[in-house]
Design goal:
The protein is α+β, with helices and mostly antiparallel strands. Helices cover 24% and strands 35% of the residues. Strands 22, 23, 24, 25, 26, 27 and 28 form a seven-stranded antiparallel beta sheet that branches. A six-stranded antiparallel beta barrel has the order 8-9-10-13-12-11. It has a six-stranded antiparallel beta barrel with strand order 2-3-4-7-6-5. The two termini are 30 Å apart.
């Protein structure tokens, strides 16, 4: 995570009222002054500005109808004070974000954090009439004001890839105006771009800037790269498109670096190639497949290279080889340097991630290694990670699966749960599907994916059994949960709150 990163819709909004003559009087004054003594060259310059403004208006009108506002409703905790005592209360919350139509059949791409844990997702489409009659300002303004009164549409969550913060949703509509993805290789620093979204909940907003960096890696060991831009991006814009002057999506607005909570000119967007790869799989499979080979990788930094006396000061090093994994079986070793994947030279960790994302399923990965100063080709089988953590989050129902004294949502083990895990130590128990933020779950040490089998030696068969056992324990009483985590049994001991 990046410090000072804010991507949600919360935060204060400061409004400053400027005193003085109306802006239109100032503009009229300027036009009179220019008109009274301007040269032919001055007229030509103004004409260039007019043409630029008209081009931006045309672009905005074309892109806006493909941008949507998303309202996700979920359950979360908030702090209430009753009789001077603070308590956590489960409440319905709404997150406002953005998205864009990537396919005319109703498919919309957004950020995973916009729809995380949502029980209801509603999509607000822009009326085409609001941008189609720019030649009649009176109708244009009326249509824009009417946007807020257009009924939203229910959306279905198709799939998420939380690691990349991408999600695909769908509405029941056809023949929608979709946006094409841009060629990432054509992106250049200084290129003019436009950020569309719903900043602070204000539908159909647009800002302009340039590409500050075509590839920004937030930290050396972050496997993803982002497009950095100074186009203003604010809370509510998450999931909106960053487009070029052709109206093509170069990236998906995702997060900002900020001290104030608002835009400070440091925004980041997910590049178009990753959007394409992830959305294609989410649409066809409902989840994103992760091909793994049982190794850990890190970026080689100059400090690491000096400390380990490595033959090169950049690239990707194997920092872990897991027992029983295909990498171990293929003979990969700690401190092997990966120089190429499937014949393509490898310079950094994001390049390694992308190579694994596009690798064909069922085929071994061809690695070129640097080990002890000599080059070594290795063929490694890969397996598809099951994405269990993404699917667990879809199991819980906040309205009936709460266990407030543990600060969790939980469901009993059933066939669906059994199918997610290769082997359970017991066919009975309670699966933790979600934790409430700043809740008792932080005290107990419970994590999403934990299976609770016992409490204080009493067998737990279903959530109701666990609730009754917890209700029987007074505040301050000791409690010990026997849980199954990653196939191993362990105790979590704590005092009841």
């Amino acid at each position: 995570m990046i410090s000072q990163k804010k991507v949600n819709r919360h935060g204060s909004q400061k409004v400053r009222v400027l005193q003085g003559p109306p802006t239109w009087l100032f503009l009229i004054g300027c036009s009179v002054s220019i008109g009274s003594g301007q040269s032919l060259q001055g007229k030509s310059s103004l004409a260039v500005l007019d043409r630029f403004s008209e081009s931006v208006q045309e672009l905005s009108a074309r892109v806006a109808t493909s941008v949507v506002q998303i309202t996700a409703t979920q359950h979360g905790t908030r702090e209430d004070s009753v009789s001077g005592l603070a308590s956590l209360t489960l409440a319905r919350q709404q997150t406002v974000g953005s998205g864009f139509i990537i396919d005319s059949e109703g498919y919309i791409v957004t950020n995973a954090h916009v729809v995380a844990g949502a029980q209801s997702i509603k999509v607000h489409l822009i009326q085409r009439s609001a941008v189609a009659r720019a030649d009649k300002p009176d109708q244009l303004i009326a249509s824009a004001l009417a946007e807020a009164f257009v009924p939203p549409m229910e959306a279905e969550l198709i799939g998420v890839f939380k690691e990349a913060d991408l999600a695909l949703i769908k509405i029941s509509a056809t023949a929608l105006p979709s946006l094409p993805l841009a060629d990432y290789n054509s992106l250049r620093q200084g290129q003019v771009v436009f950020a569309f979204g719903s900043r602070e909940g204000l539908t159909n907003s647009v800002s302009m800037g340039v590409v500050s960096s075509v590839a920004r890696q937030p930290s050396p060991d972050n496997p993803f790269i982002y497009i950095q831009t100074d186009a203003p991006i604010n809370p509510g814009d998450s999931g909106g498109p960053l487009v070029n002057t052709k109206g093509e999506v170069v990236g998906l607005d995702t997060f900002i670096l900020t001290q104030s909570g608002g835009s400070e000119g440091i925004g980041f967007a997910i590049p178009s190639p990753l959007i394409q790869v992830v959305c294609d799989q989410l649409r066809t499979q409902g989840h994103f497949r992760r091909l793994v080979m049982g190794v850990g990788t890190q970026t080689i930094t100059p400090a690491l290279a000096l400390a380990l006396k490595l033959p090169r000061s950049s690239g990707v090093i194997i920092s872990d080889v897991m027992p029983g994994g295909s990498g171990n079986a293929a003979g990969l070793k700690l401190n092997d340097i990966i120089t190429a994947v499937d014949g393509k030279p490898l310079q950094n960790l994001p390049a390694f991630l992308m190579a694994m994302l596009v690798h064909e399923k069922g085929q071994p990965v061809q690695l070129e290694l640097l080990r002890g100063g000599r080059r070594l080709p290795v063929s490694v089988d890969v397996v598809e990670e099951d994405g269990t953590s993404d699917r667990i989050a879809d199991l819980g129902n906040p309205e009936k699966d709460q266990i407030p004294k543990l600060g969790i949502l939980a469901v009993g083990v059933n066939k669906q749960v059994e199918a997610m895990f290769a082997k359970l130590r017991s066919p009975y128990g309670v699966l933790v599907t979600a934790r409430f933020e700043a809740s008792a779950a932080a005290v107990t040490g419970l994590r999403v994916g934990d299976l609770i089998h016992e409490i204080n030696g009493v067998f737990v068969a279903e959530p109701e059994t666990l609730r009754q056992a917890l209700d029987a324990l007074p505040g301050g009483a000791p409690a010990a949960l026997l849980i199954e985590r990653d196939g191993k049994l362990q105790y979590l001991a704590f005092e009841m709150q």
